[in-house]
Amino acid sequence: MSRARIKVFGANELVSVDVNIVTSTITIEDCAVNANEIQLDIPITGTVFGTLLNYKGALERLGDAVNDKPYSAPPIAPVLYIKPANTFNRYGAEIPMPAGISRLEMGAALGVVIGKQAVAVDEENALTHVAGYTIINDVSVPHDSVYRPAVRHKARDGFCPIGPWIIDRQEVDTPDDLIIRVFINDKLQQENSTSNLIRSVSRLLTDVTEFMTLNPGDVLLVGVPEEAPQAKIGDKVRIEIAGIGSLENFIVDEKESKWRGTI
């Protein structure tokens, strides 16, 4: 069992629980329930910051394109973007497929949840600013450009499932060696590891907080591995991160989604 925090739908606060990350079982006051048997809400409260090109394979996949204009060189600092609050989605909920789009990319990402204000932190003590870790599906409409904010592709309603919980930092020996797997309809479609990060979690926190404050409740995504698998309407998507758990969602036509009319 691992110590974690969850938010139940309709509640105002996170509660501490014990979870079995293999069976997705939650123990609350000696009562064990499966994550699918209760409505889990989004367990984070702050801003979600994404990081581009932090996996070695993702940068290598660009090849010589990194030398093209406007930058003419590989990035020398973290390439960040924001998943705004309208994208936040919960465990077990539907991900809306926009009209005119046939497939969506499933961006499996480790979310680093900030526990105390982080300003210009040093690499050695960076993890002391972390409250815990969660799973993020950084959903995106497939696109090629990384040189401009892809708001229309990455910031649509429901495009950021989060959860199912926040695993306490002390439960994870090292966030820099976690296997990440993506299953679509229970078939393995992607496997990678945070051991392939260009910037480790500590280094990323150091580099980001050099120019930007991260506050309690904020979440920093360490990056999305190259060749994110794609899903279509009707597909069930499960992202597993070793030591953290599993995040499940399914794809529906936006006309049948609760987000209808808001995209």
TrEMBL record:
Residues 47-251 form the Fumarylacetoacetase-like C-terminal domain. Gene3D superfamilies: Fumarylacetoacetase-like, C-terminal domain. Coiled coil: none annotated. The keyword Calcium does not apply. It holds the Pfam family FAA_hydrolase. Keywords: Isomerase, Lyase, Metal-binding. The keyword Isomerase applies. GO terms for molecular function: 5-oxopent-3-ene-1,2,5-tricarboxylate decarboxylase activity; isomerase activity. Its EC number is 4.1.1.68, 5.3.3.-. PANTHER family: 4-HYDROXYPHENYLACETATE CATABOLISM PROTEIN, ACYLPYRUVASE. This is 5-oxopent-3-ene-1,2,5-tricarboxylate decarboxylase/2-hydroxyhepta-2,4-diene-1,7-dioate isomerase.
